[in-house]
Specification:
It is a single chain. By secondary structure, the protein is mainly β. It has no helices and 11 strands. The protein has strands at 4-7, 10-13, 18-24, 33-39, 46-51, 58-60, 68-73, 78-83, 92-99, 113-114, 118-123. Strands 2, 4, 5, 6, 9, 10 and 11 form a 7-stranded mixed sheet that branches. Strands 1-3-8-7 form a 4-stranded antiparallel sheet, with no helix packed on it. Strand 5 and strand 6 (58-60) form a beta hairpin.
Length: 124
Amino acid sequence: QVQVAESGGGLVQAGGSLRLSCVASGRTFGNYAMGWFRQAPGKEREFVAAINYNSIVTYYADSVKGRFTISRDNAKNTVYLQMNSLKYQDTAVYYCAAARRSFIVTIMTDYDYWGLGTQVTVSS
């Protein structure tokens, strides 16, 4: 069983930056694809970004492309989401997820393990 825990959320003004971190337990972190999703109030959870097991491939939702960067440090069992030029519309609970496969995963139902989420609030 893999446990996933996010951190780094908070309140930030529009135009500001935040970096989210996600630590996953287990010795096989380096074999997992990782992703970030978010859920705003009253909306469905949506894909934000994903990274494959060795960081060669990344993929972003159009809404965050050019502003957010996903990365990972397999030695630390950690995946990051650097969020720049934040907008009010980025306000949501952000979730980290791990998939038991090495290639990139963008479909929510293909992820096997989820964190509890971290709140990001962007003030306009």
